[in-house]
Specification:
Blueprint (H helix, E strand, L loop, with lengths): L13 E5 L5 H10 L6 E5 L2 E8 L8 H9 L4 E3 L11 H15 L4 H5 L4 H5 L3 E7 L7 E11 L2 E13 L9 E7 L11 H14 L4 H4 L2 H11 L4 E10 L5 E5 L8 E8 L2 E7 H14 L2 H7 L3 H11 L2 H9 L4 H9 L1 H9 L3 E4 L4 E5 L7 E7 L6 E9 L1
Antiparallel strand pairs: 1-3, 2-3, 4-14, 5-6, 6-7, 7-8, 8-9, 9-16, 10-15, 11-14, 11-16, 12-13, 12-15
This protein binds fe (ii) ion (FE2).
The site of fe (ii) ion (FE2) has 3 residues, from loops.
Amino acid sequence: MSSLDPSALQSQPVAYIAGPDVDAQQARAIATRIHCGEPLLLTRRGSTLGWIAPRQAANLPVAQQIRAAWLASQPILLPDCVHDQLTAHERHIRHSLRLMDAVLNGEELTELLEKNPYAMRLGSRFEILASSEDEGDPQEIETLEFDVLDHGEIIAENLWCKASWLSFEDDDDSLRFRFSFGMANYEDVAADVERELHAAALAEAVFPESTIITESSTLDTLLKAALEVPALAYVERIVYFNAPNGGAQFHQDVERGHLGVVFAQVHGRTGWLSLPKQSLLDEIQSFVTDANCAPLETLLPESESRLQLLKTCANRSALSDWLDETDNEPLELLLNRCPEFAQQLIEHGHAFILQPGDVIMLPQHDLQQCAWHTVFCLDDYTGEALSFAVRTV
Ligand SMILES: [Fe+2]
């Protein structure tokens, strides 16, 4: 196998152990028998997909492998890449977990950020203007608006920090803090690099552990080699707190002007299924074509939904378009709630386990060439992770 072959990264560091019907003791026995580490359950919002386990310690890929994988829209795991910086940020991470807990307990973000250490770090540079809650967005908890000041003069306006739930489920406490500006989800953010950089600095003032990514010389070197750019910036920052039973459904993060996303685990562990969109289409088509009807009948008891899935999957272009739509329930169920489909993805090498200090890079070239991904909390406590978009400057 050539060292430039992106599939070299797919050496299956994660093993499939068993389906959701197997209990922890049985899973442990299977994992031991096949010389794997601790079995971990992929479960999210009432859907349990099965047990996985680390098969071997993954190595840091070399720059040429990363470049080839990046061009092929493959997710790229960088084990231990930022591990050395975790100790220096222990206190910041502890503060952030406390902030997350306080928001979870209904405390107002405005009041929390007006106290130290936040007030001190926001200083005279970031002025809190207003707090609001968008009634039309049931996932939103609170949005704080900021101006940026330099010697008392406003130099940037309408930056925000938005705290949101990751789901509508009562038994999923996952939440995130997103930093951006202007009209959420409408603005061409990449066109205003100045404000993007101010929003990035705001994220760093609230979550100083952001420098785990931004000041990592290893990550900087690897990313520049992968992207073949002389300089880059980390923008559109999101700090995730994935709670037990939580995580993110399958999605992509394509955004005009951004090249991809880097995600660093700083506390707790997450499980991932991730692969290029074109590979995901292959996996869906082969699963639906090959599956004996049993998994699909359980997943989609209504024959109408089943037929819609079978019919659309027969046409790759129609399936590709359907994947990009938001209203695609039969497909969404297959992607997120079908243990047999998850098993296929895991057995084909598309699963990853992120420990504190690990980074995963997710190329996002365009809607056709991007790494799709889904995330699970692997612990019985809430973890923390940093998810930053990458752009040239
Ligand atoms: Fe994402």
